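Sample pair:
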Amino acid sequence: MRTVLHTLTLLTVVTTVGVGQMVPPRGSSPARDRQPEDTVEVPHFRVEPPVAPLGAMWRSLLVPGWGQAALHRRGTGAFFVFMEGLTMAMTLKSLHQLGFEEQTDAETVEAKRDEVQDWAVLWGFNHLLAALEAFVAAELWDFPAELEAQPLPDGGIGLGLSVYWR
């Protein structure tokens, strides 16, 4: 095992030293082999979002819907604000009911504690999901795709995805 390790170390040193001492072939000079600089300006292919992806993520992590609003995704932001209000209200309501049940020594105290915990987890999950959605929406800000639904002749509904290629 030790000889294998010494052999690998020796090979690494020899190849590193050998690569560093390579000499260019005769008849070529570094000035002659240099490629001309590219003078054609390449247009920007990415349209920058109004907010950086991490900025949108942090906004929605603090206040769900804020990152979506900054990205002009008002419907999605409104959904996360609604879920924030619902989960907050239900957590506080369950806490109030838990306090009442503890005062009256009801048999359902453990079930009510579980209910409070469930609503609190949903409240936190709403924050994480809003942050993730804002990050992905900012990353895919300029994705050229449209999803459309059209009625089919047989009465069904067909979904189509249009992707524009440049």
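The two ends are 56 Å apart (CA to CA).
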